[in-house]
From TrEMBL:
The protein, known as: Hydroxymethylglutaryl-CoA lyase
Domain Pyruvate carboxyltransferase: 1-270
SUPFAM superfamilies: Aldolase
GO annotation, biological process: ketone body biosynthetic process; L-leucine catabolic process
Stated family: Belongs to the HMG-CoA lyase family.
InterPro entries: Aldolase_TIM, HMGL, PYR_CT
Lineage: Bacteria, Pseudomonadati, Bacteroidota, Cytophagia, Cytophagales
GO molecular function, one term: hydroxymethylglutaryl-CoA lyase activity
Pfam families: HMGL-like
Keyword Transport among record annotations: no
Length: 281
């Protein structure tokens, strides 16, 4: 079971700017915990996401000397991908490809065909630079816009990604629309159908529904989960009222119940949690 910690997702919708030094301290604490991957920042327009306008400065302050955690940066277009790919410290580039045309335009100002063309170019860019592209299938469990959604549509998107050679695809809830009844059949169908792809679950949730969502994905074969300490965050491009990220604490509880040993540094986790409370409360 891989845990991807997503402080970028937690921070991006906050109105008050978090000082760069505070971000660096928090991310360095998270790096000491031992998560598989840290979704630490994004190379997008500072007008779109002003909170993360200092991602390059934050990256320069990270201590990667004693961690196995890999860095992931979100990008919204090919120019951002080229910037992210220029940093040797970054392993993964993440791009939100939406199953909903409406949300694709809201999130990256692109049509679906334009976004797919960018994905192909980003994948080639990553291959040339020793990076790995992670495609987040946003609105992967439905959308609030009335755009067409079905398991077959999600499968068609995945087929196109597989044809490009994309190796990591995270089904993303975005607005908390998923239920066990939608999560289970999607992962159960996709995982055996595309053995060359590692599937992840980026689930947004309410406190009362987290367990059934994680259990549905895990029992269907998913082993890659995104979370954020405290369950903070949500996509500011999706709605005015944000549905929080899957709380990392809940993922840790689930792993313990399932008998999965994650090998995390619990002392460092406590330090990171204290910093989290100071930032978000």
């Amino acid at each position: 079971m891989k845990l991807i910690e997503c402080p970028r997702d937690a921070m991006q919708g906050l109105t008050d700017f978090i000082p760069t030094a505070t971000k660096i301290d928090y991310l360095n604490a998270l790096l000491r915990v031992g998560f598989d991957t840290l979704d630490f920042g994004s190379f997008v327009s500072p007008k779109a996401i002003p909170q993360l306008r200092d991602t390059a400065e934050v990256l320069a302050g990270l201590d990667l000397s004693a961690t196995q955690t890999k860095l992931l940066a979100i990008v919204a277009n090919l120019r951002g991908a080229e910037t992210a790919a220029s940093y040797p410290e970054i392993k993964y580039l993440g791009f939100p490809l939406s199953v909903s045309e409406t949300f694709q335009r809201r999130n990256t100002n692109q049509s679906t065909p334009e976004a797919l063309a960018d994905v192909a170019a980003m994948h080639e860019l990553c291959e040339r630079n020793g990076k790995v592209l992670v495609v987040y299938l946003s609105m992967g469990f439905g959308n609030p816009y009335g755009d067409a959604w079905s398991p077959e549509i999600v499968t068609d998107f995945t087929q196109q990604l597989a044809a490009m050679g994309v190796r990591v695809v995270a089904l993303s809830d975005t607005v908390g629309a998923s239920t066990a009844a939608t999560i289970t059949p999607l992962f159960s169908a996709l995982i055996p159908a595309f053995p060359g792809i590692e599937f992840g679950a980026h689930l947004h949730t309410t406190p009362s529904t987290w367990h059934e969502k994680v259990a549905a994905a895990y029992q269907a074969g998913c082993r890659r989960f995104d979370g954020a300490l405290g369950g903070y965050g949500g996509c500011p491009m999706a709605a005015d009222e944000l549905t929080g990220n899957m709380a990392t604490e809940n993922l840790l509880d689930f792993a313990a119940q399932a008998g999965v040993e994650l090998g995390l540094n619990l002392e460092a986790l406590g330090e990171a949690s204290a910093l989290n409370h100071a930032i978000f409360r």
